[in-house]
Amino acid sequence: MDDTLPDSESLERLLSDARQLPALQPHAARLERLRQDYARGHARREVPLTVALVGATGAGKSTLLNALAGQALAREGEDRPTSTAATVFAPEGLALEDLGQVGARVVRYTPGPRGLWSGQVFIDTPDLNSVATAHREVARGALERADVALVVMHRGSVAESSQAEFLAEFARRRALVFLINFADELSAESREALKSQARRLAAERYGLALEAVPVFAISGRAAQQGQDPSGEFGALLFHLQSLASETVAERVRRDNARGALTELGTRVEGALKETEDTLARAGAALAAGMGRAATALREDFDARLVLAQGHLASEVREQAAGRFWGPAAWGMRLSTAGVGGLGAATLVARRNLPVGLAVAATTTVLDAVRERTRARAAETAVVEPFEDDLAVESAARASLTEARSLAYAGGLTPEALGLPDLDTLLAELKAARASAWRYTLTTAVAGAVARWWRTARWLLLPLINLPLFALLAHVGYRVVRAYVEGPLLGVDYFLNAGALFALLAGAGALLASASLAGTTRAVRRAGLERFGVLLEALGARFGESVQGGLRSGREAARALLRLR
To answer: Which conformational region is residue 527 in: left (phi greater than 0), alpha (psi within -120 to 50 degrees), or beta?
Structure first.
């Protein structure tokens, strides 16, 4: 056997995997017949040629078979159809392999000296144009197990559509020999016209090369009597004997196997293209749907960030305070209410120090509790879905609708294509929101504060801290002067100086916080951009999942196509 043909086991494994493609599943029975056909042609060695005689009612198949065998093997008669089931005529002692599986009657014969082409395995099949349509199935099963098809025709059956449709299935994987019977009833011109018609039909309907179609005009009845009125029966015998030679028979079976492999490849190629077209369309539809949904999803995320604006501002102030130095830095860690509370505590302390300290402590504790509560509320608002979060669900559903519809239209389940369902997409969107929120609280805040600090350290820091330094310098001057010249300063002076210091520090903290308003907006923009990037990445990941759909079946199909 030709080394270029793959072994049957490898082909069976690849075809089994390729059948995962939904486009191949309706053709499973046909594919299995082709695989078995390939295996038979690949495996058969040094056995007589198996010849199936097929044709229309009254074409004279049985008569021709008897003429070739040189003895009356098949029953001849005028009542049509004569053959209602396939009959296998095989030499005595010859193993029939799988021919017995077709449900055919087996007749053993001894090749006689008068056999012009005796010693072969003949299969006499039911008529192809019989009113009993089951006859064609019997003929099909027989021809599946033959090497050569002798197509026996009379003048009225050359162009019969039922015969042409039947033979189209085998044209590429069987050696076809066309016979115009009853040549003794035709003129020479009629014989040539019918032969030309047969060649033309074979070329047009089966794709065979016109000059390579063997067509003979013979008379089976005359051949039984040793006569050859058309002068072509001898040429037919020579052609058949050449087919039966060991070398040519092996080539015939190899060509049959290659034809079965080519037809398998053609069907698999079509299914692969259909599957990949469906995958490409579904991937494009999913990408378009995700792109359309991105606008609504970004608007939703921006609205969530607006709800978390207070906490973002607090985080920005805290990180900015870490870059500051001086009393204003501590005040920046408090909210506006906290700074106001400390200012009030300072004023109260002028009248009653213990009460002022209590007010300051209470304000600080309440501010810390309030900030923690706001942090939890902000994360819930951004990450968790709203109870009536219909806009996001609607956008997510719309992004999947077209792609999932294409999958169903292509005979695929969305899951087989790697398309997510609605719950999976909503879960992924929630994860994307959580990731974008973490990025906003960390990287975005740090980056925005760093950009703010490049200017603030040269302008804002001196503006806030110089009045405090001036106050401290003035207090120091007064203390030294009082110590040298007397009298010493009273407690009221220090309380007033402390209150003024606290007010200046609070004012500085408020000024620094006010300068961070643009920074907070920049953080929000960065978070929104990050969410957009995550949406694009999510769409790309789903797209890759779609392109990887039915991967094993597609890879097996490609490997099978490389075997052709």
So the answer is: alpha
DSSP 138-171: HHHHHHHT-SEEEEEE-TTTTT-HHHHHHHHTTT
CA dist list (Å): 271 to 169, 411, 548: 18, 11, 16
∠ at Cα 381 (377, 385), nearest 5°?
Answer: 135
Answer whether 312's CB lies under 8 Å from 440's CB: yes
List, for residues 324-346, the tens digit of each pLDDT value.
Answer: 776 666 666 555 555 555 555 55
Q: What is the CA radius of gyration of the chain?
A: 47
For residue 502, give Cα distances in angstroms to 204, 314, 349.
Answer: 103, 21, 11
* Three-state DSSP class for residue 516: coil
CA distances from 548 to 270, 554, 555 (A): 19, 9, 10
By the 10 Å C-beta count (0-12 exposed, 13-18 middle, 19+ buried), 2 is classed as: exposed
8 Å CB contact between 444 and 530 = yes
Is cis: bond before 81, omega within 30 of 0? Answer: yes
Give the residue among 336, 148, 139, 365 at the shortest CA–CA distance from 240. 148
The CA-atom distances, in angstroms, between 506 and each of 356, 379, 431 are 16, 29, 40
Query: By C-alpha distance, which of 55, 241, 51 is closest to 151?
Result: 55
CA torsion 200→206→212→213, rounded to 10°? -60
8 Å CB contact between 15 and 552: no
**24 contacts 266 by C-beta, under 8 angstroms:** no
Alpha helix stretches (DSSP H) within 412-459: 422-439, 445-456
Contact at 8 Å (CB) between 270 and 23? Answer: yes
In one-letter notation, the amino acid at residue 407 is: A
Secondary structure (3-state) at 54: strand
Distance linking the first and last C-alpha atoms of the chain: 15
Instruction: Please tell me the distance from the alpha carbon of residue 47 to that of residue 121, in angstroms, as a whole number.
Output: 9
Half-sphere exposure of 47 (CA within 13 A, CB side): 20
Look up the pTM and report it: 0.70
Q: Report the C-alpha gap between 355 and 360 in whole angstroms.
A: 9
In the chain, the amino acid numbered 163 is Q
| CB 380, CB 255: distance < 8 Å | no
pLDDT tens-digit map of 490-534:
777 887 787 777 777 777 777 777 788 888 899 999 999 999 999
DSSP 440: I
Report in angstroms the alpha-carbon separations of 43 from 5, 8, 23, 49, 330: 11, 8, 29, 14, 90
What's phi and psi for 70, nearest 5 deg? 75, 15
> Is the Cβ–Cβ distance between 174 and 259 less than 8 Å?
yes
Q: Residues 449-498: pLDDT tens digits? A: 899 888 887 887 777 778 888 888 888 888 888 888 878 887 778 877 87
Token pair in block for residue 271: 């299914």
